Amino acid sequence: METKQAKPTQAEIEACLIEILNSGEAGLNPEGVPLEPASLLGADLNLTSIDILHVLASIDMRLRRKLPFQELVITPHGYVQDLSVAQIAEFVHSTYDRALVSPS
After folding, report:
1. Can you give the pLDDT of all 104 residues of the chain as single tens digits?
2. What is the CATH number of the domain that holds 25?
3. d(CA 52, CA 48)
4. Is residue 104 in some structural domain?
5. Which of 36, 85, 92, 94 has its CA 20 to 30 A from that of 71?
6. Based on the structure, what is the number of domains in the chain?
């Protein structure tokens, strides 16, 4: 029987996201910019939209969920231009329970 994974706190999600951004293999923070919840992925790290999609996919893989990130990056007014660590973490936390569970 499959055990249900406990919902991470927003702070845990922020820490996970910062870890993804700082991971040397991803190459997303080569300058070692200090990251905090208010850090912007575009303005502070110069990430492109493709880089940001890579980050969002990494979150899916780490949490073993298929989160509805299209709701975060596309609004009725168009594409979101930049996202902070806190905005992403808040979104993940608020949609975690309705996300599809990915197979292990």
Report:
1. 344 678 999 999 999 999 999 986 667 888 888 999 999 999 999 999 999 999 999 999 999 999 999 999 998 889 999 999 999 999 999 999 988 887 65
2. 1.10.1200.10
3. 6
4. no
5. 36
6. 1
